[in-house]
Specification:
Blueprint lengths: L1 E7 L10 H13 L10 E9 L2 E10 L2 E9 L2 H39 L24 E2 L1 H11 L3 E6 L5 E6 L5 E5 L4
Length: about 190
């Protein structure tokens, strides 16, 4: 696993730790997750302090999927352990779903080849779409999109960015700040 580790506003010396020790601990713990991936994965980790608690957020890019989690605790090593547990649960849960989908697709292919009939809804989807919305996307600035999201009481808002003319999503983070998702061709 390739690591990019960034530290922000963190004072480890008070707790008898060094930045190097924490980075080694992160690499050791997250590195154990490599066993789940066929290809080499990339991990981006941010470690910092918010409101007297140490926090860690990690995004792992592997096998075409992104696994992300963030945890906070008074002890950074405990937060790291919690984060690894969360990501491992995500991997296991999605691994099972992916295996089910592969089996379901293989079954469908074999039925189509053999001429057996297939009816829609034969397989039970774990992702039930309860509602579908259509709306006109208005070009606006990021600040206007945040205002509109807050006025609607939503936790995200889709808009067309006036400056880039691209589709963007603004959302409110757990720390109360806002984030923008921009599409990138890839």
């Amino acid at each position: 696993m390739k690591f990019t580790i960034v530290t922000r506003k963190i004072n480890l010396k008070e707790k008898g730790l060094t930045e190097q020790r924490v980075k080694e601990y992160v690499e050791k713990k997250l590195g154990k997750l490599d066993k789940f991936f066929k290809e080499e994965s990339d991990a981006r980790v941010v470690i910092g302090t918010i409101k007297d608690e140490e926090y860690i957020e990690a995004s792992i890019f592997a096998s075409g999927m992104i696994y992300r989690a963030e945890e906070a605790d008074e002890d950074i090593l405990t937060a790291i352990d919690k984060l690894v547990d969360v990501i491992e649960r995500q991997i296991r849960k999605n691994k099972t779903r992916l295996e089910k989908k592969i089996k379901r697709d293989a079954t469908l292919d074999s039925k189509l080849i053999s001429g057996a009939s297939y009816t829609e809804g034969e397989d039970e989807s774990e992702f039930e779409i309860a509602k579908r919305k259509r709306f006109t996307v208005k070009p606006m600035h990021e600040e206007e999109a945040i205002l509109q999201m807050n006025l609607l009481g939503h936790n995200f808002f889709v808009f067309k960015n006036v400056e880039t003319e691209e589709m963007n999503v603004v959302y409110k983070r757990k720390d109360g700040k806002y984030a923008i998702i921009e599409s990138v061709d890839g």
